[in-house]
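queue> holo job accepted (pyridoxal-5'-phosphate)
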Amino acid sequence: MLWPKRVQTVPEIRTKLPGPQARALIESDEQVTSSSYTRAYPLAVARAQAATIEDADGNRFLDFTAGIAVCSTGHCHPRVVKAIQQQAELLLHMSGTDFYYGPQRDLAHKLAEITPGDDPKKIFFTNSGSEAVEAAFKLARHHTKRQHAISFFGAFHGRTMGALSLTGSKVTQRRDFSPLVPGVSHIEFPDCYRCQANQSGQACCWKSLSDLEDKIFHKTVSPHEVAAFFVEPILGEGGYIVPPDGFHQRLKDLAERYDILFVADEVQTGMGRTGKMFAMEHWGIEPDITCLAKGIASGMPLGAIVAKQEVMDWGPGAHASTFGGNPVSCVAALETIALLEEGLIENAARVGKFMLEKLSALQADQPLLGNVRGRGLMIGAELVLDSNTKQPAIEQCQEVVQRCFGKGLLLLSCGDSTVRFCPPLVISEEQVEVALGIFTEALDEVTEMDQQRL
Ligand SMILES: Cc1ncc(COP(=O)(O)O)c(C=O)c1O
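queue> job finished
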């Protein structure tokens, strides 16, 4: 059973948004919280269950964001909550860097078992995705004794200095923070929808990698100085872009040719999100290092890197984290993984396929809907002004997301103009129908608004 009790599937908006309680909360929050936060719309959450969010005024929303692809088992899954409660009474913290305790040991064994590849593995625990990427970057340099790294335009790897240096998504994320960590080169991530040369279906994939060889390796950086390739299996923040089949294998072949480590950033794609435990399984890739966070503990802060044992060869003191591998987060992760294995991954694959088909079917009647793509419950709908020029419909995308919020459906955007759908993995086909009904209404309204402006 995915969810033990019957939960509300239909949103219900009772007040003008934001309602009085939400407005008061937002005003007082904004007096003291960082101006860098990007709140897409005025949602003040009071509580949540499964895929339903209730705001401070009692309005109910259908959540297709899962707290940015985090609440994998749904909000407050009773089994996850119970595991947290029981652990909280036993031990809250003791620092896994300095001492031993069962939940960290158990989770490390479990992660070593479920990540792709039969080689012996070692795990380092962090609190977040950025820290996982940061740890992978340090480990790659430490192990290879090489300085350089290659990542992708459009990639998002986090915001700490090392992770930010690998990020190539939006200039606002990097502006005024230089100098960043030196030694990172970015190359194109293949986007078949936008690839001009892509008549054969795969040209963009090969071009990106031949540019790496012809331009970077032959002109600026020797491959023998490159420690690692950092790659998201599917671009997340950069637009939910699925690379063509063969791309990751070619990149892996190049990595092996030059003894470069292949680091998979599965922070967003991992833990069942794409209908497999790890997205790299779609292409049969066994990375040298896998970065995890987000969905791993259903909302508790936790990240990890899983590396081949021969790669994680640093000595005591080389890297550590006070809170990484916190026991409460570790038991939440163990329960999350159990639920994923008991049926949530299968649900993500089945409902994701259903949703992708339904969204694709909308394209015929929706001129704004340029491209629909994804795997499992990581689905992007790219909005364009014209299907020939594929010019991103940036304003329209934001307007659609706003209107959906007004109607009780929570969505976020990614890339320039892609609506991202990443609901909790407990979502049902019935809830997908409701969400797509709202999404269609919003698209209709925005299309009409555009026509009136002409
Ligand atoms: C692929 C990927 N890597 C790394 C990160 C950074 O994770 P965090 O925000 O937990 O630091 C994100 C966050 O969106 C991500 O999507």
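queue> Residues 20-76+344-453 form a domain with the Aspartate Aminotransferase, domain 1 fold (CATH 3.90.1150.10).
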